[in-house]
Specification:
Length: 300
């Protein structure tokens, strides 16, 4: 086996394959011009109007990074007397595809036998309605990445406020990878309306994913050569750590070579950090463990 375990091998292979497939459309390869996250979060507006279950609702957001389109689905509605969980999917997923073989972490986690009597809501981030190739092309611009995160956080905030107005006693947020970054950003720059944040496979230094992790194989040359630009635009560790509330229950993967523990775990100092002995790609398939962590975090 050598010095790498199977989890690290899978992550290395996955990053290498991604770097080859998207070599002509690398991340941030088109433009590094972007509004810093600190200037976009909390200043991006989104208003949800309808919380009727069963169909996707579009929301147009507007803020310093521009205008973006999100969607949300009230997947299960017990009633306003029940707590509500809002979930944000991972990067490049197909959250609106509930087919048997679809890449949809929400569908896998929240099966019909999910044991908690809570309302379930799914947010779809911008650029996730089309193909994976279209998504990668959109992220040729760093500002689109900022806008995607800021817009998703704005929709999360608007939904949380809406459910509280309806009388929901508690509102929880959970998300994987991209969804985890969105939750952590909401906690860092808004920090109200969500009773418990459950970020999975995400931290507060997203720039490190593109600078130092094996995921840098998917990143454009100019971006890799200007790490200070990415750090200035994306890093929000200081703001996250300035929130003193004990309301965050994170999960990271010990052998993850994309969202690495050595760079992301320090932000969770003093928190009840759950770790799985998995890599990035093996971890995202650990559905039972992820489901159990979400349930545990809600019930505690």
């Amino acid at each position: 086996m050598g010095i790498f375990n199977i989890h690290e091998i899978l992550d290395r292979v996955g990053a290498a394959v991604g770097g080859f497939v998207y070599r002509k459309t690398p991340l941030f390869g088109e433009s590094l011009e972007a509004v810093p996250l600190r200037d976009a979060l909390g200043k991006t507006s989104a208003e949800v109007e309808d919380i009727k279950p069963g169909s996707w609702k579009k929301v147009k957001t507007s803020g310093p990074a521009g205008v973006f389109s999100c969607s949300y689905l009230v997947y299960r509605w017990i009633g306003p007397e029940a707590p509500t969980l809002i979930y944000i999917h991972g990067s490049g997923e197909s959250p609106d595809n509930f087919g048997r073989r679809s890449d949809n972490s929400f569908k896998k986690i929240f099966t019909p036998d999910f044991p908690l009597d809570i309302n379930l809501v799914l947010i779809m981030a911008p650029f996730h309605e089309g193909s994976q190739a279209e998504y990668i092309k959109a992220l040729g611009k760093l500002n689109n990445y900022v806008g995607m995160l800021a817009s998703s956080a704005a929709v999360l905030d608007s939904l949380a406020r809406k459910f509280r107005e309806e009388g929901c006693p508690e509102v929880f947020g959970a998300g994987f990878s991209l969804g985890g970054w969105v939750l952590n950003l909401h906690r860092a720059f808004i920090g109200e309306g969500i009773d418990r944040y459950i970020p999975i496979c995400a931290g507060t230094r997203p720039e490190e994913v593109f600078i130092s992790s094996h995921y840098r194989k998917l990143v454009g040359k100019k971006a890799r050569e200007n790490p200070e630009v990415l750090k200035n635009v994306l890093n929000f560790e200081k703001e996250f750590k300035s929130n003193p509330k004990q309301d965050c229950f994170p999960m990271l993967f010990q052998y993850d070579l994309l969202t690495e523990m050595k760079t992301q775990a320090p932000a969770f100092a003093g928190m009840d950090l759950k770790t799985l002995k998995k890599g990035h790609f093996a971890g995202q398939q650990a559905i039972k463990e992820i489901r159990d962590h979400i349930i545990f975090s809600i019930k505690r």
